[in-house]
Amino acid sequence: MKKMTTGIAGTILIAATLFVGAAISDKILGDANGETNEAAVKTQIPTTANSQKVVYAPPSIEEVPDGPMKEAILYGYELVNNTHVAADDYVGNQLSCTSCHAGAGYDEQASSLVGVTANYPQYIARSGGIVTIEERINGCMVRSMNGKKFDMNSDELEAMVAYFAYISQGVPIGAEREWAGTSNMKSVPIPDVAHGEELYAQSCIACHAADGSGTGATTGPALWGENSFNDGAGMARMSKMAGYIQNNMPVGAGGTLSDQDAADLAAYILSQDRPEWANHDKDWPKGGRPNDLMNKEKREQVKNGTIDWEQVLSTN
Which UniProt keywords apply (predicted)? Predict the structure, then answer.
């Protein structure tokens, strides 16, 4: 496992703090893939940047300046882009952050992570409290990556924070990041799972395989099965999965699917078996648990034809 000197690690923490500013740290990724928005409420930070629009102009990973931060930033990039390999001791499936946040978060059109540190700290209803950027990363590790958390002073976590701070340069706290978007369908139509299966066979198997096992973390991530995200991830919700599919799929043609087709695909994908999250009972401790989370019980209901989709989608 790659190690950095104590001096560099300390510099990383100082730099990350400067980038995050006067805040104390929530999400990324899960999941990526937009789990920030499953939180319902954001901490309002008093700043004129709340109404300020910023230009999408992240610094190039090819031009990281020399100095004590460079090693950490490049290591963070590798951890984000190739998570299941670079952090194999912590990842329990075959996914990477890039599986949802294309190009290690650089892709402006696919759940970009540029400027993510400007959104933390943030209140997340699922956690029931204020979450830091470090805690948000670890949330993705145990849910989207179906793995385990990094130690708070680990080289890996420090490097990921350094990388996110680097690509967030020029984005002030509270600024409006138009490119970030939201992978959330506010009104999901009643899905037709059989039609979703047909659509999947027509358009998705080339990248994600007929059995959902995928062709690679960055080329076609596993959508179900033991090497996919667990059912505690944000993407395990119908509103999130349908929204992500509609916004980003097919690759290069995002936004072309109708609400109905995206919902049908989401229902088919989320009705398949996947790892189970062991702490469902601890999520949303202050109430507001959404109905559209597709856990094992709902997956079984889809299979035996007893699911009440109107009830499942009633909170969306």
Answer: Heme, Iron, Metal-binding, Oxidoreductase
What one-character DSSP code corresponds to residue 45? Answer: -
pLDDT score of 52: 65
CA dist 267 and 188 (Å) reads 10
pLDDT tens column, 74-119: 999 999 999 999 999 999 999 999 999 999 999 888 889 999 999 9
CB-side exposure of 56: number of CA atoms within 13 Å? 13
| Helix, strand counts (H, E) of the chain | 11, 2
Say what the alpha-carbon torsion angle 293, 228, 182, 60 is, to the nearest 10 degrees.
Answer: 160
Question: What does the DSSP 8-state code read for residue 140?
Answer: H
Q: For domain 68-167, which CATH number applies: 3.40.50.300, 1.20.1560.10, 3.90.226.10, 1.10.760.10? A: 1.10.760.10
Phi/psi class of residue 21: alpha, beta or left (left: φ > 0; alpha: ψ in -120 to 50)? left
Mean pLDDT of 225-232: 98
- CA 155 to CA 258: how far, in whole Å? 43
* Full-model pTM: 0.83
